[in-house]
Amino acid sequence: MPTASPKERLRVVIRGAVQGVGFRPFVYRLAKEMALPGWVSNSPQGVFLEVEGEEETLHAFLLRLEQERPPRASIQSLEYSFLPLHGFTEFEIRKSDGAGERTALVLPDIATCPECLREVFDPANRRYLYPFTNCTNCGPRFSILQALPYDRPNTTMARFPMCEACRHEYQNPEDRRFHAQPNACPTCGPRLELWDGHGTTLSSNHAALRAAALAIRRGEIVAVKGLGGFHLVVDARDDYAVRRLRTRKEREEKPLALMAPSLAWIEGRCEISPLEERLLLSPESPIVLLRRRPEAESDGVAPSVAPGNPDLGVMLPYTPLHHILLRELGIPVVATSGNLSDEPICTDERDALERLSDIADCFLVHDRPIARHVDDSVARVLLGRELVLRRARGYAPLPVHVLRPLPQLLAVGAHLKNAIAVSSGSQVFVSQHIGDLETVHAFAAFHRVVDDFHRLYELTPVKVAADAHPDYLSTRDAQRRGLPLVSVQHHYAHVLSCMAENGLDGPVLGVSWDGTGYGSDQTIWGGEFLRVTDAGWTRTAHLRTFRLPGGEQAIKEPRRAAIGLLYELFGDETFARDELAPVASFAVRERTILQQALVRRLNSPLTSSAGRLFDAVAALIGLRLTTRFEGQAAMELEWAIQGVHTDEAYPFRLEPGDGPLIVDWAPLVQEVLSDLGTGMANSLMAARFHNALAEMVVAVARHAGEAQVALSGGCFQNRYLTERTVRRLTAEGFSPYWHQRIPPNDGGIALGQILAAARSKE
Ligand code: ZN
Ligand code: ZN
Ligand code: FE
């Protein structure tokens, strides 16, 4: 593959105290010095800038932008994306866009700034060890906002009248806390309390925090009320404590996130690139998925935190409360959302007592109400760019800027990993992560967020967009809104979402791969290649279909997907192949039932899903027969590749037909079976499988002849698959695009639905 680094365009949107502090001249000088053409401008929405150059130079520019910024400039949010080259020739300061957008900008919550942190740990400061310290540059925003404009009476801080000292800071234009709406101190602000499981106060203020730290050290589970909700916290080194948390939370195997005591601690256990370090320390401070150091055999993290996982999800403390707690502890903790299994995160301490009483041993709470739930965001750096996998704290509800102005629209998202979106002008506001709409609590949270966004942005949408799946709760809700309804095919929404955030116009070949989506032929789609133009979309190609015996049950049991796959090739003979793990895992009587279901096509829907193909192959090679969480088999198949470097790929066939091109995996399955016969290592089979998927994309791209290829859908959370596919497409002369600010999974569907509704004539 070529090593020449093509030029790219970097777009950066910066919000914070960056206006009137010489930020634009600074950007101009930096861009000139680094010989990067582009532009910078100011608007009420923040500082926007674009520069063009080689990837390495752009990374350096990005890091210097923060490190060398003017002393009085404070960055509260920095979002960047890489876009197709525009062809700038010089750098210019563009005129301020005075008109701007009329929609008010709601800022996300901002991680504690260095100045506040210094004060919190300065014994001489009046805010020494005060967990609610904040200033104009940092602190809660979205999570305390009750109405616009953003003024103290409109926040949950309204109940705390400022003391004289705080009021003085608030009114003094020279002070860092001038008009800092959540300004507070130990005299006038929120307080901590430690409660037992019945809500009885055990201690207050710093004593409460120290007692909570002691409980964590003893191996107890402490529910901590944080910024956008509760965390459940345990000692991350204590395997017994972590397993106890898993059992009580009914979260058996899904990886848990850590909060680390310091950057140095993380560096000792994980490989960190400069962009990853930036992300860990950023105002957004998300959970960052980092590669564990292979040599750190025993890194002190309990095995049950992320079993078998080559990555760790790690964040640094992002509020003074977390900073003080972690300083007191000096150890890493598991900090997972305070909920039962897949329910939304708890935000209210009385609610927490009820819902978390069977999980937590004690509760560290405070009296600043949380206006709305905001989970921790999850991101990773992939191919030298950020990829946001769960968009919540630090990011939501910042808008995505689209190419053309849109009418006011509402999009209700999909079913899993639900988030909603609304549009106004050329901005799309994507909500914080809501979750899987599987429980009453989750559906209630969905309704709250929809109402919330209507209220905040004073919306009167002219249309509502929903998934084409008639039974999704989100779709049913959209049907009841009395608005024109635009029904959007799931995989089309994925592709539009990817196009929108990359600023792409059609035509595009969209590769939309995920677990499940309602197809327009009533089968389950998920291995789709869609040609998207400004006029609409057509299904160019898809993976060969197979049946899923047991329907829904097959999603939890990859062995069923494997049986369906084998049945497609071998028919009834499948059930005699005892040497295959998925077949052997069923008793003879169960096999008869499966066979009957397949023969009679009862509860055995057809699917073209790439996610289910992952499942089937994972089961076939004996890696994972049944799963405990969505996507587990595919994740483990990716992890299995660890340490293997090969370009070998399993074969496949393209079958032209009357309709879409069929990507036939039959030769792939045949080869897997013969490799199994030779006792080949799982790692090599996993690599060959992933490589084959990348080659499928390249082959269909050649066939379709579109230069622009957009990769979307949950399968592209897979690092190996995404990197391999992008590299191969680039090597073959295509321009691949993938997600950056918006998740490739169903969390990005609402953005795509907005774009679809805007295009629709309905
Ligand atoms: Zn601050
Ligand atoms: Zn005060
Ligand atoms: Fe999807």
> How many angstroms separate the termini?
46 Å
CATH hierarchy class name of the domain at 541-737: Alpha Beta
Count the beta strands. 30
- Calculate Rg over CA atoms: 26 Å
According to CATH, the fold-level topology of the domain at 541-737 is Nucleotidyltransferase, domain 5
Class computed from helices, strands and strand pairing: alpha/beta
Profile the largest sheet: 12 strands, mixed
Q: Categorize the overall geometry.
A: globular
Q: CATH superfamily of the domain at 541-737, called what?
A: ATPase, nucleotide binding domain
Helical residues, percent = 25-40%
Question: Would you mind describing this structure in some detail?
Answer:
The protein is α/β, with parallel strands linked by helices and 762 residues long. The protein has 23 helices and 30 strands. Strands 6, 7, 8, 9, 10, 11, 12, 13, 14, 15, 16 and 17 form a twelve-stranded mixed beta sheet that branches. Strands 27-28-24-23-22-29-30 form a seven-stranded mixed beta sheet, sandwiched between helices. The structure holds zinc ion (2 copies) and fe (iii) ion. One zinc ion (ZN) binds next to helix 3.
